[in-house]
């Protein structure tokens, strides 16, 4: 079970104007094979299906807990897509062409299928698919997969960063590079405990330090790369059996933090009445709001 | 963001023996177009993409909060699949045929691809896909979709119930029929507020009362069909603007309950060393456990 | 069985020049999940699979008959795509670059895979798929689905309208908005008869009147929104049991019309010899025509 | 546009008992790559997209007209699937296991997703897809495709025939083998006219005569293999420019028949109230029927 | 089994600058339904699955041997895609936007998912799929398929040629038009031997001679259209039983050539360190190279 | 380019009788995400797309060369599927039910779509897809992927071994376990050279030694696990820069062998005339054979 907290993991800036092509490209980080839907669902299902929980509880806790964090990453990328699509349609009468910008945009489904919001799809509009989840039941193999998945996800994040200088995209990517680094390191450490192989030494993959990206650097300077949040009130306490010792790159002590990061507010997204989003005239909206208040 | 609670929404019985074909069929309720992955992801993404949150906050709260409950439903169906696969392989040496039961089982991927665990796929092994998410941005249309989705999901649950008498499957379905009924009613009420049409009167669809099924009846007798849990510590309080008044079928008062249901323990799933699940000999498992404890 | 009539449901204007990106976007209304292939195939298969025809014949007749009309809608959207692609290639020798316009067009398959004609795919080139057909066998649920499908289709039509001012696209959409409105109303009325719930009151979804669009308004002014054509010589007469009374929006009497609308001619589409469409030099074409005439 | 005729192309026998595995296998002939959905949609879209209609009208007429016949073939295979699923569920209370037969059946979706009816999918439940349509715009290539498609479809029909001796399946296949033979021959003749190559001489592919199958032989003895029906009241008259001369195998004169074959009645399919098909208790069904009659 | 030869089938020119949209379009010839992956895999699997090898050995040899040539065609198209993507990213620091060209490019996956290299996908990024392989086991039908496949592939090649004048694309297409012509002719001759029908007379399909394209003409002038290479040291000698006599278009004698064409060098593709391709700084690259040499 | 050698990598026994369910399951090792099509295509495309070949030639050579070996692995698994399907149909007249065994078999497509031969699909008939190819361009990441892919492939092989005791399946798996072990070790060594991390120490994954399986043990006893074959006449010589030193498990010296393994004969697969495989009566077969000989 989960409890939701109606906040984003960080404070996200709203762009000044819509940037639909950047929105389309950022979708790769949401619904691509190496996007956040994949990290969320891989770790979540690996935790659901875990056998041998008693002896291997710290590994169960680690996977389950990182899965919980990934929910917020999906949320953050979705918020970014929404921000990039904010104001994407023109303020025109429906009988004019308020959605003309969609005709030339990379992804028409942002304009036709969603209400200028995030799709569960990648940058070429291929939907995310359940068979992106790898869960063999062999713990070493599953952890090796997770380590590889985090490294692949990191490469994709860097490349999307290199495609757009839009500040909202870069803020999100900067943060996720650091958090993804924590996860890659955590899985590497888990593998080290199980196999004795010094996997952390491989990192970072690709061999470009997070500090090269200003938006990531600031989160590292705040020590985010050494913190593993425990996304639970009561559970997953045994992650301390794995997330311990020092960071393989900077040698500073690793830390488990109880609870979520402080986070930032959900975005306040504009309505787009010309495209029936959310589908009420201002007077109707007001009236419904009044009705809801009164009727209790 | 979310906090995970390491419990199932109900107490689930473990079957005495493996039932791989039932496991295969139950997958429809997890990864089918009308399975719990669909309800989870539809409502979650509708909440991520919601525009016009200020005036329509109760609707946002409702969708976001039901989305939170659905996470636990995915978890519950996954636990059922795992329970049905518990002991599915024979305790034989790998050089014998410990996985022979898989040769005739409906879904070979339960034996080859997963560690005798849940797939993110339906009863014919088609993976769940991101384009099962409907999110037009038009609130009435999205709620109409959700109402339809819940009714379709209910039909599938009933039909899977009618296919297997396995107690773990029926316990799960009984509970979810009641909870799905709450969601269908909630969306119907939301539509009523927005359109003035008495949608709740259509229920139940299909026209078979939950009380026909003993495993559902007991949850209704406990009043579960009138409770909407608020899966959040601080947020989504405005669901009371919609979940109010009386239940359309029994006329009893509706109730918002803060927090999750009490729930039951996660299942204790057997290891299957013959298939490398989780991939350690008993002595290795013990040794790793010791090492984890010592190393802190 | 069917009899084909070699006419379009309306007279469609030919655009002055090719508009490949509009053609690509219009594909959503043909092969998208809410496109005309979906309405055609949903109702057609629901009629093929209908059980309980004796007692429920009017509902069978309604679904079967609307399915027949949808065939003409697929045809109309396909004609629109063809019209928008007419003249899309340059009149150049094959050794030059007559298909250069395709290099930058949204959908390369219009230029490589088809002969500058309609694809059975959506606006992002995802092929239409048989699992877009919903047919549970539960009549209320199937009708609820159909009602939802028509509303979703309507939203997509409006949004494509808002993306392009091309007259051929808008003429087609104007007409289909009105006809789709008839279908939504018919399914709503069927649901009212079965459940007693006043579903028609929800319409239109989205809440933008057809009359806002000049190309739809003219068809409403001609009373098209009140007519249900009976696409059969002898059958489906019981649709009058459902399509009766007055129109929920304008209060005027509903009418069943025997036979098809008068319709307009099939388009006369240009050949594109530079791309081997249809693949004969003018002299060969003439010769073949002569041979066909002579050989009888 | 089309007019529907509420009859099947032949009289189809109802099997004495359900045969769900045969139903599953017959799906290949409906929604497989070489199934009737493919022949229907290939020829239909080729006719929609035809360029150069003036000089090549007989070819347009031929493709369009065969497309019209294929609609009835889809209908016939769907009826066969329905017949094979008739009575597939047990007459038990929903709280028992009326759908237990589905647990071991090849295709669970016949029991969960449809109301024991036809899916738009193949024998392994892969949905039919729009990219099974081939339409290059080059007429010779399109006709070569159609010729190949008919031969492939013929092989699949023979192999499904060889898998099941169920009379309803064999009656349908016997008829379609003969009709498919007409189409293969027609496309071969069209190719001969265009290229001068004696394509009809290749037939039959595979090299097993229809007369080997009793259910096909009787239709050949009735001369069905020499008749091309003209599925239109007014149009497609120029098919006589191609369907003329003698049959390549038996040397008897070919014949164009105006209108459809006489056909047989639609099947009367049983309700399955235990699975909510169509979802009304007998008393409700009667009441609704009365209401519909009275309300006019 | 195979032996690889590290050469391309021809000498391929490197373009002066990147042309990502041409690269995207050329993908159709690699991973499209009619691309080289399809020809490779169709013939390869037909040879793997061949039954009746003893009596039909020349046909087995023909299919197996052409399958071997197709490997080199996939390689050649992949090299072309790589050439067209060479230099596609800007030489900027990762914190700038070196991949900005990808934001507007047809296919984002060339920039995010691959290292600016070929995808196993078509021009709309749909992945190549195993069900593009047709292999019925009926030899005439399989050969008819192969003949059709070659003609469809030829049309696609011509249309891609007509979309771009990029010399590297045209050199590759010119060569493959000629080689594809050999394969179409070979399959036509095989069909002639088996059926007595003069299939070669249909060629070329589409009816545009290779000699219309300068890049193809030069290969024909070198007699390439009359040569069938035997891609084996010891095997497939019986292709001479089919590839014999004279060329159906120019009447010159056909020839079997033992071994591969002389070919040209593999391309020397630039690194793209800004996108971590291959992921080492120049100094690291040098160091690794040294280490590899020393360590033996 | 390649040269084909018409032999299998090992001598494969023919089973005494058909075993269609084993054939269906073995498909996972051919067309599954971790099947041999994936290893073949991953390494082949990684070699096609390799940038930085000059400094990193040994890595290029390694990947290209292992890709060449994988072709033979696909061939070997395909041969196994064919062997398991040999004699799968009954020797009956087509008008009887010679394909009745297919009605209950796992995969109907072995009986309808192929000529009782291998599909390019997995054990649930999902086609292999081009997006199973991972090729980021970052060499460390690509090698990490390859290492993970080999380990996943190994797990699937072991599990299929555990599902069936059919000797042909086990012979093939035994051999491929050993060869896959070579590849996993080779990629591990490549990673060690590039990163300094002792990756080979992780092996084997899963932690079940090949020697546990008699069919694998015999190949290890013959030293196959220490040999890397060089599948080229002239190229890929620099694999010795990586495949050197001693085997991480047994400490014996590693060896590069020029050329392929000696291999065994292609299987002699039975015809199945009842299903038109290959589609000629014995007298026709003989006649064609004679004609081919004479006509030269």
Number of helices of chain A: 10
Mean pLDDT of chain A: 96
Beta strands of chain A, count = 5
The SSE string of chain A, one letter per element, is EEHHHHHHHHHEEEH
What percentage of amino acids of chain A are in beta strands?
5-15%
What's the helical proportion of residues of chain A? Answer: 40-55%
Radius of gyration of chain A: 21 Å
For the report, how would you describe the main beta sheet of chain A? 2 strands, antiparallel
Please give the alpha-carbon distance between the first and last residues of chain A. 29 Å
Category from helices, strands and their pairing of chain A = mainly alpha
Strand order of the largest sheet of chain A: 2-5
Pair with the most extensive interface? Answer: A-B, 95 and 94 residues
Please render the helix and strand layout as text.
Six copies of one chain form a homohexamer.
Chain A lengths: L1 E3 L2 E2 L11 H7 L1 H4 L4 H13 L8 H29 L14 H5 L4 H4 L26 H25 L3 H29 L18 H8 L5 E4 L24 E4 L5 E2 L16 H14 L1
Parallel strand pairs in A: 3-4
Antiparallel strand pairs in A: 2-5
Helix pairs in contact in A: 1-4, 3-4, 3-7, 4-8, 7-8, 8-9
């Amino acid at each position: 079970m989960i409890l939701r907290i109606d906040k984003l993991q960080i404070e996200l800036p709203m762009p000044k104007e819509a940037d639909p092509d950047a929105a389309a490209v950022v979708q790769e980080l949401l619904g691509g094979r190496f996007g956040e839907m994949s990290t969320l669902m891989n770790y979540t299902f690996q935790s659901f299906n875990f056998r041998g929980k008693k002896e291997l509880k710290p590994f169960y806790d680690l996977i389950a807990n990182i899965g919980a964090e990934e929910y917020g990453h999906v949320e953050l990328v979705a918020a970014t897509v929404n921000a990039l699509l904010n104001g994407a349609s023109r303020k025109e009468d429906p009988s004019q062409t308020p959605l003309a910008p969609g005709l030339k945009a990379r992804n028409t489904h942002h304009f036709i299928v969603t209400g200028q919001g995030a799709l569960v799809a990648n940058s070429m509009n291929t939907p995310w698919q359940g068979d992106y989840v790898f869960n063999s039941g062999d713990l070493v193999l599953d952890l090796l997969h997770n380590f590889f998945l985090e490294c692949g996800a990191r490469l994709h994040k860097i490349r999307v960063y290199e495609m757009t200088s839009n500040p909202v995209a870069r803020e999100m990517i900067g943060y996720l590079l650091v958090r993804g680094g924590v996860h890659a390191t955590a899985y590497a450490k888990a593998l080290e405990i199980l196999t004795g192989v010094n996997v952390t030494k491989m990192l970072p993959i690709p061999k470009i330090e997070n500090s090269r990206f200003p938006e990531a650097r600031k989160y590292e300077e705040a020590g985010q790369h050494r913190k593993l949040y425990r996304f639970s009130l009561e559970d997953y306490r045994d992650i301390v059996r794995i997330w311990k010792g020092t960071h393989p790159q900077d040698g500073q002590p690793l830390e488990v933090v109880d609870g979520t990061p402080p986070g930032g507010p959900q975005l306040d997204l504009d309505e787009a009445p010309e495209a029936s989003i959310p589908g009420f005239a201002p007077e109707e909206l007001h009236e419904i709001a009044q009705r809801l208040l009164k009727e209790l």
